[in-house]
Write a structure and sequence with these properties.
Blueprint: E1 10-15, H1 20-31, H2 49-65, E2 71-74, H3 78-87, E3 95-97, H4 114-120, H5 122-131, H6 144-158, E4 165-170, H7 172-182, H8 187-196, E5 204-209, E6 214-221, H9 223-228
Parallel strand pairs: 1-4, 2-3, 2-4
Antiparallel strand pairs: 1-5, 5-6
Helix pairs in contact: 2-3, 4-5, 6-7, 7-8
Length: 244
Amino acid sequence: MSASASTVRTLWLVRHGESEGNLVATAADRSGAEQLDLEWRDADTPLSAGGEEQAVALGSWMRDHADGIDVAWVSPYVRARRTLELAASGTDLPILIDERLRDRELGVLDGLTRRGVEARHPAEAERRRKLGKYYHRPPGGESWADVALRLRSFLQDALAAPVGEAVIVAHDAVVMLTLSLLLPWSEEELLGFAADHTVLNASVTRLDHDGERWTLTSFADVAHLREEGADVTVHSGDPDVEPR
């Protein structure tokens, strides 16, 4: 489906609130550990206490926009579903779970820090350097290009839906790759933007369609968090090898 055929005129992209995985990944990165001390599989990683507060604060934004939003699509992962559950509380927003919005799968690199990848999979680390972030697919996992492929399928369905305004609640890679597909960006443009911009926890990004093309109206807005007194969180670590 071409972007010009979209019936959706405003698309909001929301990243989940801070997760326990974010906290563990940052701690591991700072300590120089090779592996993350996680008790959950990636799909089941919950929000942190701070992430729950961010999701509640996101609810102020959601209530301000609920009358205009026709539908919410959400990743099946616990951290995304819980974010939307808290943010949409008290609204009648229709919610649809779509597995194509899940986070990037890391295969054999799952649960490893950058140090861990270099130590335990040196050949894979070298292959990543050669292929680059966009095309490197770890064994058993996905490249950014793979995620883009399933998002193309999702957007073909979603943008044809008879709605004018919609929200997606998912992950930072999903936000970045959705931008790259709709704006559209080349590999170089995407990686350049991603290097200079962070999709913050519980942030809101807005895309508008004028009947011909998509425009990025705002990126990773967290004004609602500041207004509600919730923390704005930034976590270290490479999203290619650590849960985000």
